[in-house]
């Protein structure tokens, strides 16, 4: 891998990181002159995703000059975004568009706040149906899949070569490789964040499902087994929980061998790695790669905004879902190209030629899984299940104790006993 070339491609493809402030200034000037301004609230704090979105907005506004303007506004992180949207419901100052997870969409639909997108999207037939179907509720489409990532396997090529270990293809091979290298190095080499995202990889690939006969179940036998695997990995010395910062921010604090993490982190991993970084589809079975958690959001359009703003919003959705825009966005950020024709665009072909590893992200998108699209999932994910995973990994409870406690909390939440 030509790391320097890859980084230049990631940063230059759409005038990225270095031009972030300039893009904001350009958008401000564009919108001051526009007869209609459609705000887009998002959860990108910075980096390549925010820069790529802003550059797409600049290009759209140039094309739409004199008609309407899109102004992306960061609301902090994703939880900050959903909190501010809930507050905007009460205040009556919703934006035209926003990013939203599937569970956010389910919540906003309870308030009858969203416009269906059926008949509004020019490129719908070209979009990945796996992602499109996830934003259909009662047969209607309420979101445009936008910044979608999938978990992939990151690994240290130098370390695997040193110990004569092949890139693992199955779960058993993965654990065996991590054990072998960890024993030789004297410290754990599989690094993970003790959260629902990491846990989801093990959970889904051990046959887990969060929904059973319409009921949310977080303490299933498969769930307990998945959490026990992580806990035992820590005890046995092949798994290392990262409790502060992202994994790539901890490079240099030990011997890194593997992680199962979002493809959206690819550019950050590349910048941080002082070793030959490789990526691969997730270890699964002999028959196929493992299933990785789908992360990232969709773009939604709110009902209670001016119809002229809605019109600009639909124009923007058609622009960003086109093959060229999707190719630019994917190459710049590591997100999955949602438009299936994006891979034929010259910019993505060039990116794949310079960085053939990116094909891994495209391939992994065929083996992915979603979390439940229910209104309460955000609270369950972070405050209940996430807390249980952390407690078990840090030895404050056994996996079964932690998940049984979480199950009771889930049932209390869904029944209205707690909020």
From TrEMBL:
Keywords: Signal, Transport. Residues 1-19 form the signal peptide. One of its GO terms (cellular component) is cell envelope. It is found in: Cell envelope. Transmembrane segments: none annotated. Belongs to the bacterial solute-binding protein 1 family. This is Carbohydrate ABC transporter substrate-binding protein, CUT1 family.
């Amino acid at each position: 891998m030509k790391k320097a070339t890859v980084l230049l491609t990631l940063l230059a493809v759409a005038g990225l990181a270095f031009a972030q402030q300039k893009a904001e200034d350009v958008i401000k000037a564009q919108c001051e002159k526009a007869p209609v301004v459609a705000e887009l609230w998002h959860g990108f704090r910075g980096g390549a995703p925010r820069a790529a979105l802003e550059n797409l907005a600049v290009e759209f506004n140039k094309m739409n000059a004199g008609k309407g303007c899109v102004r992306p506004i960061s609301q902090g992180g994703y939880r900050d975004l959903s909190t501010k949207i809930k507050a905007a419901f009460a205040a009556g100052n919703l934006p035209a568009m926003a990013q939203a997870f599937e569970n956010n969409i389910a919540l906003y639909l309870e308030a009858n706040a969203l416009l269906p997108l059926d008949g509004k999207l020019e490129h719908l037939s070209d979009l990945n149906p796996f992602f499109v179907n996830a934003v259909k509720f009662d047969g209607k489409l309420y979101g445009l899949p936008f910044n979608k990532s999938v978990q992939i396997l990151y690994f240290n090529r130098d370390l695997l070569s040193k110990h004569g270990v092949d890139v693992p293809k199955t779960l058993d091979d993965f654990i065996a490789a991590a054990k072998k290298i960890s024993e030789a190095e004297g410290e754990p080499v599989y690094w993970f964040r003790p959260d629902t995202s990491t846990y989801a990889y093990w959970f889904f690939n051990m046959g887990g499902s969060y929904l059973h006969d319409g009921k949310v179940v977080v303490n299933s036998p498969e769930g307990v087994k998945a959490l026990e695997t992580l806990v035992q990995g820590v005890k046995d010395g092949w798994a290392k929980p990262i409790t502060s910062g992202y994994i790539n921010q901890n490079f240099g604090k030990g011997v890194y061998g593997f992680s199962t993490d979002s493809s959206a982190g690819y550019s950050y991993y590349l910048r941080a790695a002082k070793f030959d970084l490789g990526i691969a589809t997730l270890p699964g079975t002999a028959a196929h790669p493992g299933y990785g958690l789908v992360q990232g959001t969709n773009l939604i359009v709110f009902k209670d905004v001016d119809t002229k703003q809605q019109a600009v919003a639909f124009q923007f959705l058609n622009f960003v879902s086109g093959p060229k825009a999707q190719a630019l966005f994917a190459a710049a950020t590591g997100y999955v190209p949602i438009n299936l024709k994006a891979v034929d665009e010259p910019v993505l072909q060039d990116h794949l030629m310079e960085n053939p590893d990116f094909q891994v992200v495209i391939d992994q998108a065929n083996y992915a899984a979603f979390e439940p699209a229910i209104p309460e999932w955000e609270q369950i994910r972070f405050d209940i299940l996430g807390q249980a995973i952390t407690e078990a990994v840090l030895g404050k409870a056994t996996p079964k104790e932690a998940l049984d406690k979480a199950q009771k909390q889930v049932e209390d939440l869904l029944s209205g006993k707690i909020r």
